[in-house]
Amino acid sequence: MGNGEDKTNVWKFRLTDKIANISQVSIEENTEFWLESMKLWFYGYKTSKDYKVTIWGRKVDFSFSIAPVGMPTDYPPVTAAPQKKKITAPFPPEQRAYVNSLKVKIKELKEHLPELPDEAMEKRYWDYLDRQSFIDNLQCAAVAWDNKEADMIVKCREASEYLARMLPALQAMHLPDELMRDDTKFSLVLARVLQFARIVEENAEKNRIDLPVQLHELIVFIDDFTDRMIEGGNKLFGIERRMTLDEHNASLELDGEALYGDKPIEERLVMLQTLWENRLLSPVDRIEYLEQAIELVKKQNRKRQEIVPCPHEELIKKHLSAIHTYVKELEDEGETVWRRRMAEGMAESLVSWREATGEPPLSVEDFASRIDLQSLHIKTEEQEDGCILYELELYFQDRDDSFAGHIMYALVKNHVVKEITLMG
User: Fold this and answer.
1) How far apart are the first and last CA of the chain?
2) What Å distances lie between residue 43 and 46, 123, 245, 320, CA to CA?
3) CA distance 212 to 231
4) What φ, ψ does residue 239 adopt, rounded to 5°?
5) Cβ distance 376 to 325 under 8 Å?
6) Nearest Cα to 340, choosing from 366, 361, 368, 370?
7) What pairs with residue 33 in β-bridges?
8) Using one digit for the tens of pLDDT, what is the confidence trace for 293-330?
9) How large is the average pLDDT for residues 166-174?
């Protein structure tokens, strides 16, 4: 444990147990100035920045705060030292050459980045497919599936019939090579249709309901077609092939060690090089790793300030261990459980918002499949008896933007879900 490099009252803690994929964190005093009393109040400690951690296989923003017993108080436990301007010493010649070589690599990667899809490109897809027929059948299938008065047999059969009607048009669609890419809204629509069709088929199998064979043919076709769009996108971005699950997990592990690990900078630069040279990663990710390497070199040349001991070092270590446990419990509970929980909690609001904006209805299952965790914040509070109370705040976004930019929010207090609502 040591202090941060830019402020006296920032401390680094190496984690005995990793929190998600990070092995060290920087913590600073959590203070707030009250104009009413003209006093600086001390609330405890908080992360000095938002971290990127891996929860359920995806990167999310992560932060936390820690409160000792009796917070807030009207004085901080450590007297703040005068802030000094961050000073970066001139690079030695070999480091300057290294940084310049990284900048050249960044420039080369940026020059070969394909143009991002625009509205004109999105419209081109419908030149090869009857948009109205496609959307009408999809909406009818969604309405049939969301019919709360119908039993499962009727819902499965009616939804599957509408979905099956989409197959001939999709089979007749022959897209040019430049449209075979997976970073478009159209590819996302196909992925949603595939998810919807699979949900209908799975429910039919559970309830032993016979469905038209065309539904399964639709699933097989879209599954193959979206795979080919992924291959096309990989080719467009110069990605050699799709990662295996083991390769994906290894990349996430290396990402955590390189960006947030406690190894010497030289070792972290080697890890970053492994990542930016990995042609199975997108050029955008590789550029980010190159930029992170440049930041590490700059960090190496910054002058350090005087170390001030942390007054609650042992308490913070105890809370970090607890935070590790809370995050692990969240990971073990699983993305599927939380997606379903958020979808059910926001179901009534979803109907109102989509009706107000003229969007077609969504079933709870379909809506759940579109929900992604964006950020996570944990508050811990020490009690007189040594127990730790905690609050877990989760912020979700749905890929369809059903709530016009508003974020879905969930609050968990001591293992109990207290609130699910919209924010922002």
Assistant:
1) 37
2) 9, 53, 42, 17
3) 30
4) -90, 125
5) no
6) 368
7) 40
8) 998 888 777 655 556 788 889 999 999 999 999 999 99
9) 92
- Between 107 and 39, the higher pLDDT residue: 107
Q: Which residue has the tokens 């509070």?
A: 381
Answer yes or no: are the C-beta atoms of 165 and 126 closer than 8 Å.
no
Mind listing the pLDDT tens digit for each residue in 48-70? 888 888 898 888 899 999 999 98
Residue entry with tokens 């998600």: 20
What's the pLDDT tens digit per position in 101-139?
A: 999 999 998 888 888 888 899 999 999 998 888 989 998
Report CA 321 to chain centroid distance, whole Å. Answer: 23
Q: For residues 142 and 361, is the Cβ–Cβ distance under 8 A?
A: yes
Token pair for 147: 């019919």
**419, 104 Cβ separation under 8 angstroms:** no
What is d(CA 29, CA 50) in angstroms, rounded to the nearest whole number? 15
Burial of 266 (0-12, 13-18, 19+ CB in 10 A): exposed
Measured CA to CA, the distance from residue 234 to residue 247 in angstroms comes to: 16
User: What is the Cα–Cα distance from 407 to 50, expressed in whole angstroms?
Assistant: 18
pTM of the complete model beyond 0.85: no
Residue 246, pLDDT above cutoff 80: yes
Burial of 98 (0-12, 13-18, 19+ CB in 10 A): middle
Altogether, the residues listed in the chain come to a count of: 424
